Amino acid sequence: MILIVESLPILLKGTLVTIQLTLAGLALGLVIAIPVSFFQVYGARVPRLVCSIYEKTFRSIPLLVLLMLIFYGLAEVGVRLDPFVACVLGLGLRSSAYQSQIFRGAILSVGKGQTVAALSIGMTRFQTFRYIVFPQALRFSIAPWTNELTVVLKDSSMAYALGVVELLRQGSYIIARTYEPMVIFLLCAAIYLALTLFANRILAFVEKKLRIAGFETREVVH
Amino acid sequence: MNQEPVLMVVDLRKKYGTTEILKGVSLELKKGETKVIIGPSGTGKSTLLLCINRLVEPDSGKVFLEGEEITSKNAHRMRQKIGFVFQDFNLFNHLTALDNVRIGLIKVQKLPKDEATQIALEQLRKVGLADKVHLYPSQLSGGQKQRVAIARALAMRPKLILFDEPTSALDPELIGEVLSVMIDLAKSGMTMLVVTHELGFARSVADEIVFMENGVIVEQGPPSEIFTNPKVERTRQFLRRLTELYGEERR
Amino acid sequence: MSFAEVFIQAIPRLLNGLIVTFYMTAFAAIFGLLFGTLLCVWRVYANKVVSFLSATFIELIRGTPMLVQLFILYYGLPVYGIRFSPLVAALIGFTMNSAAYQAEYIRGAIQSIGSGQMRAALSIGMSKWQAVRLIILPQALRRVIPAWTNEFIYLLKYTSMAYIIGAPEMMAQAKFIASRNFEFFKVYLITALIYLTVVWISSFFFAWLERKLRIPGTVVGER
C-alpha cells in the first residue's frame, strides 16, 4: 500500500532515535555494570552490600517509574533534562543492574580451579583476572547479553511516555494524520522485529568468532 | 509345542544419515524362548530392539508379533504386548514405584483402579520390592529402579520382553539382583530377547546366543556351541576379548 | 507540601491502583501459564503446520515491544470494529505476551527432561498425547516454577505500561494525584517505594514457597 511506502522514511527517522536510545542506554549500563559486578564478586563486605542494594533496587522498580522519577525529580532540583537524555539515563540505570548480574554470573561460572591453577604458577590476582578469568567470563556473557540488548531495544519504546520522538511516537504522529492505526503499528512492530533479528545475527557472529572448540562446560551457579 | 513364533523379524534395515546401522537383520523367537544378543558396542543391537517395537522407524523390513505385522499405525496398540526394559531405566520421575507400574494399567489398558493396584503390587512383590512401593525413583538405588522398570513392563502382561543392556548402567554390586529377577523370569517361561554383556547370565539361561557385529548377525546357536566351539573366527575373537575383560563369574 | 503530607494524601488512591496492578499481574501470569502450556505443546508435539504457527506466534510476540502490542490491541483493533476498554486491552495484551514467554520456559523445561521419559511412556503403549499429558507435562510444569515466579515479578513491574493506554492501575493514579498537587517527584517516589516493597515481599514469598515445595533446582528461564 502507498501508505506503507510513504510512512517508511518517517518511521525510519524514529528508528534512528530508537537505535540511539538503545545503544546509549546499553553503553551506560555497561560502564556502570562492570565495576558493580567486579565489586560484587571480589569486593569486601561493604562494597558488596552497596552493590547488592543498588542492583536489587533498580531491578525492582518499573522502568516507567524510573523515567518519571528522573525527569521530574531533576526538574524539581532545577535541572530540566531533555527527555531523550532522561530516557538514556533511565534505560542505562536499569540495564546496569541486569548487566551486572550477567557479568557476575559469568565470572562465577569460571571454575575455581582456573583461579587456583593460575595462582599456583605465580600469577597475581590481577593477572589471573585479566588473562584467565576475564576471557572465559566474556564468552559466557555473550548469550545473556544478547538477550539484554533485545530487552533494552523493546523497552526503549517506553520513551514514548516522555514524549521522545522515537519509532513508536513517529508512528502515532502518522496515525493522527492518516487514521490507519493497524497498518502503522504493525509496520512499527515489523521494524522492531527486524532490529531484533539483526542484532541477534550480529551477536551470534561475534559469539562464533570467539568460540573455542569444546568449551561448553561451565559450573552451575546457584 | 507352539508352531507360530511369537516374534518374527524379517530383514530389518536402518540408516542414520549415511551410516548403515542395521544391514538386514532377521531372527525369530518361539514362545518361552530366551535369546541373548551379544556383540561389540555400537553395532546396532539397541537399534534392533528399538525397531522391533517401533520406537525407532526402520527403513525397511518387517516385524511380526504372533503373526500380526507391527506398523507405525498400530504401534501403540502393539506396544502393550511388548515389554521394554531400558539401560537407563527411564522410570517416571514424578511417580512413586507403585504409580509407575500402575499407570499403564489404568491409562492404557483402562483397568479400574483397584484391579490395577492389585496387579501392580503383585508385580512389585515378585521383583522383591513390596516394601518400597511408595518411594520415588530418586529414593531408589539403580538396581531397585531397574527392578521397578521390569515390574512395570511385566504388569502389562506382554507376550515378549525386550531388554536393552539392562545392567550396563548399574554399579557392579547391584547387577546381581537384577539378573536374578531376569533368570527367574526366563525360567518361568517368559519369551525374552536380551542385549547384554553378561555372559554368565547368557550361559545359564539363554536358549540361543546371537552374535551381532556391524549391523549383521554373524553367528547364532545354543550356548553350548557358541561358547565352547564357535564356528566363525570373529565370534571366537570377541568371546576371548570379553572373558579377558569381564571374567566369567559375576555375582 | 512536605513528604509526609503528600504521602498521606496519595496513599489511599495509590493502594487502590495497586489492587488493579495486582489483579492484572495475577491474571496475566495465570492465564499466560495456561495459554503458554498450550502454545508450547503445539510447538513441540503437534504436526508441522500447527507447530510452525505457534512457533511463529511466539517469536513475533517475543520480538516486538509489549507497548506496541498494547497499542495494536487498543488503538488498532477499533478499525475493525473491535473496541476494548483500556483494562481489557491490557489484560489481553499482557496475557498473550506472557503466554509467549512462558511457552519458551516450558519448552526449556521439557528439553531438560530428556527423551527417555517419552520413550518409556510409549513403550508401555501410551499414545503421544497421553505421554505428554501424564508424563511430560507434570514434570515440566514442576521444573518451570522458578521461571514462573520470575515472570510474575516481571509482570508486576511491566503492568505499569497499561497507564499509557489509560488503564486505572497504580501509575495512572500517581499521575492523577501529581497533576493535582504538582508534587510530581514526591508522588512518583512514593510509587517507586510501593513497587519496591511489593516486589521484595513477592520475592521472599516465592523463595519461601519454592523451599517448601522442594523443587529440584533447575532454573529454566528469566527475562
Key terms for this structure?
heterotrimer; B: 251 residues; alpha/beta; Rossmann fold; 6-stranded mixed sheet; 4-stranded antiparallel sheet; 9 helices; 10 strands; globular; C: 223 residues; mainly alpha; MetI-like fold; disordered C terminus
Low-confidence stretches of chain B: none
Instruction: Give the total of beta strands of chain A.
Output: 0
Strand order across the largest sheet of chain B: 6-7-8-3-9-10
Q: Give the assembly state of these chains.
A: heterotrimer
Tell me the structural class of chain A.
mainly alpha
Count the helices of chain A. How many?
Answer: 8
Our count of domains of chain A comes out at 1
**Major beta sheet summary of chain A:** none
Q: CATH fold name of chain A, please? A: MetI-like fold
- Model regions low in confidence, pLDDT < 50 over at least 5 residues of chain A: 216-222
CATH-wise, what's the superfamily of chain A? MetI-like
Q: Alpha-carbon distance between the termini of chain B?
A: 34 Å
- Output the structural class of chain B: alpha/beta
Overall geometry of chain A comes to: flat
Give the N-terminus to C-terminus distance of chain A in angstroms.
53 Å
Write the CATH architecture name of chain A.
Answer: Orthogonal Bundle
Indicate the overall shape of chain B: globular
The pLDDT mean of chain B sits at 89
Helix content of chain A: over 70%
In this structure, how is the largest beta sheet of chain B organized? 6 strands, mixed
Q: Give the CATH level 1 class of chain A.
A: Mainly Alpha
What is the gist of this entry?
With 222 residues, chain A is mainly alpha-helical. Chain A is built from eight helices and no strands. In chain B, helix 3 runs parallel beside helix 5 (142-155).
